[in-house]
Structure formats: C-alpha cells, structure tokens
Amino acid sequence: MQQIPDVIREIPLNYYVWFSAALFCIGIIGVLTRRNAIIIFMSVELMLNSVNLLLVAFSSYKADPAGQIFVFFIMAVAAAEVAVGLAIIVMIYRNIQTIDVGLLNKLKW
Amino acid sequence: MIPFVFIAFIVLTVISACVVLWSNNVLYAAFSLLLTFFGIAALYVLVGADFIAITQLLVYVGGILVLLLFGVMLTNQNGNKENGKNDIIGTNTNRLIGFAVAFGLFALLFFTFAKANFVNIQSNLFESIETFSTTQNIGVLLMTDFVLPFEVSGVLLMATLIGAAYLSSKTKV
C-alpha cells in the first residue's frame, strides 16, 4: 500500500467518521432499550462493525495496512464472543424458558 | 459517481440497522442485519480494503449471522400465546407475483447478456484494469510483524470452540 487508491479520493474521511458514529449510537440504543438477548447481541455486532469500518477507513487513508490487521483480529474476537454468548443464551433458555434479560434478576438486591 | 454509490450504501446500512433496532420479530431483525453486513462490506470495498470486505462476508454473513439464526430458532417462542408475533412458522403467499418477478428478472438479465458482446471484452479485460490489492501486504504483515497475535487468536478460537461445545451440551455437569 504505497499509494492511496483512486477510489477513495472523492469521499471525505469525515463521512466515514460521521457514519461510524451514527452506527455506533444505533447499536448503543439497541443494547440499552431492547430486552431480547439475541437483539442485544445483534446491536453489539453493529457497534463492532462501526468500529471496524472506522479503523479500515483511517488505515486506507493513511495507506498503512496495520489498521486492517487490527480489524482482522477484531473479527476473530467477535466470532468467539458470539459463539460463547449464544451458548450461554441457549443455556438460559433451557433453564428459565425465556431470553428476556429483564427476567434475569436473581443476582439483584 | 462514487459519492452517490457511497451515500446509497450508507442509507441502506442505516435503514437496515434501524430495522434491527425497532423490529418486533427477531427473525426480521436477523435478516435485516444481513443487509447491514452487506452494506458495510460494500463500504469496505469503496474504501479500498478488498481483503477485509471478503473477510466481512465470510465471517459475519457466513458465520455470525448463521449462529444468530441458530440462536433465534433454538429459543423460538412457538406456541407462546402472549408472544405470538415471534412465531417462526410461516405460509407461502404471493406465489404468482414471486414467480413473475423472478422470471422477469431472469429474462431481463438474459437479454442484456445476449446483447452484450463478451467475446470482444474478455480478451483485453485483465490488461486494462490497474490492479490494486491489499491482500499481499496483509499476508506479509501477518506472518512477520503480527505473527504472535495471529497465533494467539488461533488459540482463542480453539478455546472458544471447546467452551461453546461444553456450555451447550445437554449433560448436567
């Protein structure tokens, strides 16, 4: 990556920053307002994706591939997180027959 | 031209993310998350990161979304009377319109490809495109500077595999 590709010269970097901020905030709203555990997982994925997009955009505008390698590792960690999290959700469903996180209040005092 | 495509993919991604946010049906949310992942993969292509775009499609659409759909179906609310909107069972509707749209699209594509003269194009297709790829740089960096994190992520995925299989096994421990 010695030179910046021609494609991205027409798009300002600001657009990527604003779009990533918007997507991250949509994910935050999803985590804070929804009660279904699977929807919360989807919102976490949205937030991870927005961070990935921002890393790739900065890496590409700086013509430095190290940022894209970080994105590669973030994807591996996201896959691990979803696999373990869904196993936990299936266990919760098997025990209390629901995945509404509002009903998981046994540790609350 | 490129900014319009960029804006179009941004609008697609934001709208489908909002559908994830507000949809009452978990299955619809999962499928609109598919559109969000596709839109972000397109944005990766537009920013010039081809390897990351392909990895996005393979890992997110092929792996994570399928896992989420498994989660939806394993925890479905079938038969739950007060939560009937999450019912997974569906019926076929609009069969005629569906077939008509599919055959019309096929006819359109067929006549377009029949009119296009691919024989003239394919001889000088690959010489005229200036190749730009990030895959070689990423591969070299992964095997030199970042080889320790690469191996550690492999161990992490192995541990995840064992942990997920252990957690979701039916035997009580």
From TrEMBL, chain A:
- Membrane topology type: Multi-pass membrane protein
Record family assignment: Belongs to the complex I subunit 4L family.
The GO cellular component terms are: NADH dehydrogenase complex; plasma membrane
Q: Tell me the protein's name.
A: NADH-quinone oxidoreductase subunit K
Q: What does this protein do?
A: NDH-1 shuttles electrons from NADH, via FMN and iron-sulfur (Fe-S) centers, to quinones in the respiratory chain. The immediate electron acceptor for the enzyme in this species is believed to be ubiquinone. Couples the redox reaction to proton translocation (for every two electrons transferred, four hydrogen ions are translocated across the cytoplasmic membrane), and thus conserves the redox energy in a proton gradient.
UniProt-listed Gene3D superfamilies: 1.10.287.3510
Q: Which UniProt keywords apply?
A: Cell membrane, Membrane, NAD, Quinone, Translocase, Transmembrane, Transmembrane helix, Transport
Q: Which reaction does it catalyse?
A: a quinone + NADH + 5 H(+)(in) = a quinol + NAD(+) + 4 H(+)(out)
Supply the EC number(s).
Answer: 7.1.1.-
Q: Name one GO molecular function term.
A: quinone binding
Would you kindly state one Gene Ontology biological process term found in this protein's UniProt entry?
A: ATP synthesis coupled electron transport
Fetch the NCBIfam families from UniProt: PRK05715.1-2, PRK05715.1-3, PRK05715.1-5
Self-association and partners: NDH-1 is composed of 14 different subunits. Subunits NuoA, H, J, K, L, M, N constitute the membrane sector of the complex.
Origin organism is Arcicella rosea
Q: What is its main location?
A: membrane
What is the enzyme's main class?
Answer: translocase
- Span-the-membrane segments of this chain are 15-32, 39-58, 70-93
Asked if the record carries the keyword Membrane, the reply is yes
From the Swiss-Prot or TrEMBL record, state where the protein is found.
Cell membrane; Membrane
From TrEMBL, chain B:
Recorded GO molecular functions are: NADH dehydrogenase (ubiquinone) activity; quinone binding
What are the coiled-coil residue ranges? none
Q: Which GO terms describe its cellular component?
A: plasma membrane
Pfam families in UniProt = Oxidored_q3
Indicate the enzyme's highest-level EC class.
translocase
Return the EC number: 7.1.1.-
Membrane topology, record value: Multi-pass membrane protein
Look up the domain of life of the source: Bacteria
Where do the TM regions start and end?
6-22, 27-47, 53-75, 96-114, 146-167
Q: Does the keyword Repressor apply?
A: no
- State the compartments where it is located: Cell membrane
Please give the catalytic activity noted in the UniProt record: a quinone + NADH + 5 H(+)(in) = a quinol + NAD(+) + 4 H(+)(out)
Task: Provide this UniProt record's keywords sorted from A to Z.
Answer: Cell membrane, Membrane, NAD, Quinone, Transmembrane, Transmembrane helix
Functional note:
NDH-1 shuttles electrons from NADH, via FMN and iron-sulfur (Fe-S) centers, to quinones in the respiratory chain. Couples the redox reaction to proton translocation (for every two electrons transferred, four hydrogen ions are translocated across the cytoplasmic membrane), and thus conserves the redox energy in a proton gradient.
The family line of this record is: Belongs to the complex I subunit 6 family.
What is the name attached to this protein's record?
NADH-quinone oxidoreductase subunit J
Lineage, uppermost ranks? Bacteria, Pseudomonadati, Bacteroidota, Cytophagia, Cytophagales
